[in-house]
Amino acid sequence: MMDTKFSSAIHILIMIAGADTPMTSEQIAESVGTNASYIRKITGLLRKQGIIESRQGISGFTLLVEPEKLSLLRIYQAIEETDQVHVFDLHQNPNDACVVGRHIRPVLKDMFREIEEKAERELKDKTLADCMQKMKEEIDRE
User: Fold this and answer.
1) How far apart are CA 46 and CA 56, in angstroms?
2) How far apart are CA 120 and CA 4, in angstroms?
3) What are the pLDDT tens digits along the chain (142 aa)?
4) Are 15 and 6 within 8 A, CB to CB?
């Protein structure tokens, strides 16, 4: 089951990129609808990968990568702490005495990896700036 760290990270980065002054974890948490400690967990991962920074004595975060140069794949990799997109898990104990049970893992492993590679290519082609543009369009429709 996928969690919401990735979508929360994009939400956080849109807020940081669009802010005139550094955003605090408390301000961001209010918008994301979560607590500040969860935001600090995600911002810690983003900071570790050089996507954002926070400075000693200054409250809040600033973006270090231009939104046009920040791919969704890089964000995903920072948050999930992996090089590959991983969406699907295989069940662990299929019955080898059953013909389907014996062959299901290699069949699904290859199919799932192919789908995940397509997802990686899509995420590489989309940027934070694309998300920000879509956000602007959504706001303008209101």
Assistant:
1) 17
2) 18
3) 457 899 999 999 999 999 988 888 999 999 999 999 999 999 999 999 999 998 766 678 999 999 999 999 999 999 999 888 988 888 888 898 999 999 999 999 999 999 999 999 999 999 999 999 999 999 999 8
4) no
Contact 65, 51 (CB under 8 A): yes
Determine how many CB atoms are found less than 10 A away from the CB of residue 94: 15
pTM over 0.70: yes
**Which two structure tokens, joined as six digits, stand for 37?**
């400690």
Contacts 24+ apart (CB under 8 A), 97-101: none
Map out the domains of the chain with their CATH numbers. Answer: 5-84+126-141 (1.10.10.10)
Report residue 134 as tokens: 């879509």
